[in-house]
Amino acid sequence: MRFELLQPGSLAQALEMKKDYREGAKILAGGTDLLVLLKDGKLRAQAVMSLGRLSELNFIRSEGERGVAIGALVSHSDVAASRIIQQRCPDLAEACAQVGAAQIQNLGTLGGNLCNASPAADAAPPLLLMDALLTLASARGERRVAIHDFFLGPRRTVLEPDEILKEIFVPQPAGRRGATYLKLGRRKAMEIAIVGVGVAIHLNGSDRIVSECRIAMSSVAPTPLRARRGEAVFTNQEIRDGLIEEAAEVAAEEASPISDVRATRGYRLDMIRVLCRRAAREALARARNHKAEGWR
Amino acid sequence: MKIPVTLKVNGETYDLIIAPYRTLLDVLREEIHLTGSKKGCDAGDCGACTVLLDGKPVNACLVLAATAQDREILTIEGLARNGKLHPLQEAFVREGAVQCGFCTPGILMSLKALLDTNPAPTLEEIKIAMAGNLCRCTGYSKMFKAVESLDRSP
Ligand SMILES: Cc1cc2nc3c(=O)[nH]c(=O)nc-3n(C[C@H](O)[C@H](O)[C@H](O)COP(=O)(O)OP(=O)(O)OC[C@H]3O[C@@H](n4cnc5c(N)ncnc54)[C@H](O)[C@@H]3O)c2cc1C
Ligand code: FES
Ligand code: FES
């Protein structure tokens, strides 16, 4: 592992450097993915650009009824400990609290988790549930990309060689909503998910009618993804026996898991169904408990 | 090309000239000669290299030394004060919570960070705080006992 180290002091400076170096400079946020790859020799870099001095990308900001903006450099531990996130996106706080263990959560960033584009990225399912928007910045300007369009495949995203992920915007869903993220590993911590499933349920008035359901999965396809057909099973339905089971069945059909060191394809498909059912029950319970409140 | 880096470790300032790709762990051990922080895996998995960066536990093997400039670094060597062991260290000695000792520095740093923010943790909280530290001798229960023995003493 040998490289030149760039340490820009501002985003503007970082974008200028990225314009010149392009792929030549790898971005370093927390380094918990990048440094492991560089040490293994799986990745080579002429230069590494640390974003560590860009305190301007380390913020969690409530934007009232519109939603919450999270800087790309916020660590998993700061996301998990944030009151704003706990209240508005408890499933995101849950996901970040399950990344590795304390040391990794203190170093690893939300932006790094997304840009690394692992199929197992724990922060991805909750953000997919919320239709998060990502602000990508370059010296040419900024663009906003829906998280649904961000991932292209394992370790591949739509980021251009001169772009930096600046901010993750989480729109505030209206009404009564409950959501949770469940992760299955072989042990409780320090584990990449065998399967991860997030479910969000929206209720309109009645405790029995689901106005909308969202299901997101990780470690079951080349990218984290939404299970749109599984979601449709719930939409505008009255809760009845067998509904949750049916949605879980359909969601599993949308996955294309592989067999690897962690689990076989068949086991993963079974576990998607199990996690989906558990997450849906928990999300429903949370939605029923949710009292619509005004956001400041 | 080497670059100048100033590190603040255990309250002391070190002016170093180092290669920019060296990790904080390697620089602590090989330049500053603080060898208490151990290298088990060099990949974030074992926690033997755990140090506190601005009070928070991190894997020193996943931090570039140059990016730790101007931040407060605390290693196991800084845990004892004025020749007196930290209560956690004393509890580990008392309870026999050390076997080969390779994981011990990292575990003590994780636990120190826990106690700084949560002086009376539950067993579950102790386990969560230690989840990123592996003990190959598997002597976890005596470590839990050591921390719990601290809670009860005033
Ligand atoms: C022991 C261990 C356990 C782990 N456990 C988990 C786990 O349970 N769940 C999980 O999801 N992950 C896990 N990870 C992976 C990793 O910790 C996370 O993905 C983390 O969020 C990465 O963030 P980072 O800031 O460290 O990224 P870095 O390593 O700094 O960067 C990751 C990638 O994203 C790019 N990048 C980073 N920030 C930006 C930006 N703002 N703009 C553009 N590109 C950027 C980098 O160039 C690099 O390619 C684990 C890693 C280790 C070492
Ligand atoms: S040596 Fe750093 S975590 Fe193992
Ligand atoms: S005491 Fe030997 S590794 Fe923990």
CATH class of the largest domain in chain B: Alpha Beta
**Proportion of strand residues of chain B:** 15-25%
* Poorly predicted runs of chain A: none
CATH class of the largest domain in chain A: Alpha Beta
- Can you identify the CATH superfamily of the largest domain in chain B? Beta-grasp domain
Q: Identify the most extensive interface between protein chains.
A: A-B, 28 and 29 residues
> How many strand segments of chain B?
5
The largest β sheet of chain B comes out as: 5 strands, mixed
Task: Please state the average pLDDT score of chain A.
Answer: 94
Query: What value does the Rg of chain B take, in angstroms?
Result: 15 Å
Query: Per CATH, which architecture of the largest domain in chain A?
Result: 2-Layer Sandwich
| Structural domain tally of chain A | 2
**H/E series of chain A:** EHEHEEEHHHHHHEEEEEEEEEHEHH
Describe the fold and architecture.
Chain A is α+β, with helices and mostly antiparallel strands and 296 residues long. Chain A has 2 domains: 168 residues, Uridine Diphospho-n-acetylenolpyruvylglucosamine Reductase, domain 3; 114 residues, CO dehydrogenase flavoprotein, C-terminal domain (Enolase-like, domain 1, 2-Layer Sandwich). In chain A, the strands form 4 sheets. Chain A has a 5-stranded antiparallel beta sheet with strand order 4-5-10-6-7. In chain A, strands 11, 12, 13, 14 and 15 form a 5-stranded antiparallel beta sheet that branches. The model of chain A has no long low-confidence stretch (mean pLDDT 94). By secondary structure, chain B is of the alpha+beta class. Chain B folds into 2 domains: 75 residues, Ubiquitin-like (UB roll) (Roll), CATH 3.10.20.30; 62 residues, [2Fe-2S]-binding domain (DNA polymerase, domain 1), CATH 1.10.150. Chain B is 33% helix and 16% strand. Chain B has a 5-stranded mixed beta sheet, covered by helices on one side. In chain B, a hairpin with a 2-residue loop joins strand 1 and strand 2. In chain B, helix 2 packs across helix 5 and helix 3 crosses helix 4. Chain B is globular, with a radius of gyration of 15 Å. At the A-B interface, helix 2 and helix 6 of A face strand 4 of B. The structure holds flavin-adenine dinucleotide and FE2/S2 (inorganic) cluster (2 copies). Flavin-adenine dinucleotide (FAD) binds next to strand 2, helix 2, helix 6, helix 7 and strand 10 of chain A. One FE2/S2 (inorganic) cluster binds next to loops of chain B.
